[in-house]
């Protein structure tokens, strides 16, 4: 898909049609100004619950609330006009069953205007996905490394490295696809497993740490902009915003302490009195 100016948002049908074609470009976004910058480059903007870790400084995504997702979802919708916007359902807002999931998803869609929600879809989630899709809620699945299951899985680590894990990832992906997901995020999986998932499911797969064998790619925006000292191995840094911020803050601090800022240019002065017109 090109970066030409688009007048309408991408739809879930556009995404489904991209299976096996040019890779889908996806990034996370959490604020209006960043969404506005990313919009014309991306097919999908995901308001990920990673917002809890990268913006709010939480140790995991488990503390993220529906209210936080709605607030950031509203900001991203305000800032964007052409990408498909997907909002994550946070931990605790959908796992207890289809009805709870529908209440959360419908709130997110009504209050943000986003077009779809994402859930971290263990095999148990298939009835929930079916329930949501049948009621007009497009659902993106998420298999492999599932950050909301960090404690159950014993940490953030790549999945599918044993036969049992591999079978589990494949079963989860197949169940999410059959239940009606329009796309599935595949996180932290070896290339051969990502390839098998991508050929097994009929919808596009979006990889993160899952090789190029997926139908699209996604990264957490703060990771790819170099906001953190440490990032997972699969992240490619396209900027050094952390360094830029540090340099800018140091220069500002030095200017303030040396009374170089504010200078004349940045200072208001009294309006000069207007000359009286000649009588
Ligand atoms: O929350 C998030 O940002 C995500 C991406 C890592 C896919 O789920």
Short description:
This protein has eleven helices and eight strands. With 279 residues, it is α/β, with parallel strands linked by helices. The protein has one domain: TIM Barrel, CATH 3.20.20.
Low-pLDDT runs of 5+ residues are none
How many strand segments? 8
What general form does the structure show? Answer: elongated
Q: Which small molecules are bound?
A: 3-methyl-2-oxobutanoic acid
Overall residue-averaged pLDDT value: 94
CATH superfamily descriptor: Phosphoenolpyruvate-binding domains
The percentage of residues in β strands lies in 5-15%
Query: Class by helix and strand content?
Result: alpha/beta
Number of domains: 1
CATH class: Alpha Beta
Widest sheet: strand ordering: 1-2-3-4-5-6-7-8
User: How far apart are the termini?
Assistant: 69 Å
| CATH topology name | TIM Barrel
Helix count from the secondary structure assignment: 11
Gyration radius, in Å: 22 Å
CATH architecture: Alpha-Beta Barrel
Write the layout of secondary structure elements.
Layout: H1 12-17, E1 24-28, H2 32-38, E2 44-47, H3 51-54, H4 66-79, E3 84-88, H5 98-112, E4 116-118, H6 126-134, E5 139-144, H7 150-153, H8 163-179, E6 183-187, H9 191-200, E7 205-208, E8 216-219, H10 221-224, H11 241-257
Parallel strand pairs: 1-2, 1-8, 2-3, 3-4, 4-5, 5-6, 6-7, 7-8
Helix pairs in contact: 2-4, 4-5, 5-6, 6-8, 8-9
The chain binds 3-methyl-2-oxobutanoic acid.
3-methyl-2-oxobutanoic acid (KIV) binds at residues 28, 46, 48-50, 88, 142, 185, 208, 218, 220.
């Amino acid at each position: 898909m090109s970066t030409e100016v688009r007048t309408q948002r991408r739809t879930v049908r556009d995404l489904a049609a991209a299976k096996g074609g040019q890779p889908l470009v996806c990034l996370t976004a959490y604020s209006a100004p960043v969404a506005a910058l990313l919009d014309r480059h991306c097919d999908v903007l995901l308001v990920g619950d990673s917002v809890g870790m990268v913006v709010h400084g939480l140790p995991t995504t488990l503390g993220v609330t529906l209210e936080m997702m709605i607030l950031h979802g509203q900001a991203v919708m305000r800032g964007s006009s052409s990408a498909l916007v997907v909002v994550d359902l946070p931990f605790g807002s959908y796992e207890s069953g289809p009805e709870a999931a529908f209440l959360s998803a419908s709130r997110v869609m009504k209050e943000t205007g986003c077009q779809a929600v994402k859930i971290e879809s263990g095999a148990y989630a298939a009835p929930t996905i079916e329930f949501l899709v049948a009621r007009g809620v497009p659902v993106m699945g998420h298999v492999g490394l599932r950050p909301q299951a960090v404690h159950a899985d014993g940490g953030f680590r790549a999945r599918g490295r044993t036969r049992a894990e591999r079978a589990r990832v494949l079963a989860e992906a197949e169940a999410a696809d059959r239940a009606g997901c329009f796309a599935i995020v595949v996180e932290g999986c070896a290339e051969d497993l990502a390839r098998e998932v991508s050929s097994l499911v009929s919808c596009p797969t979006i990889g993160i740490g899952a090789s190029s064998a997926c139908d699209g790619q996604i990264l957490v925006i703060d990771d790819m902009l170099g906001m953190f000292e440490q990032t997972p191995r699969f992240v490619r840094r396209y900027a050094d915003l952390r360094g830029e911020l540090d340099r800018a803050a140091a220069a500002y601090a030095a200017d303030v302490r040396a009374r170089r800022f504010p200078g004349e240019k940045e200072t208001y002065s009294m309006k000069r009195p207007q000359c009286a017109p000649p009588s």
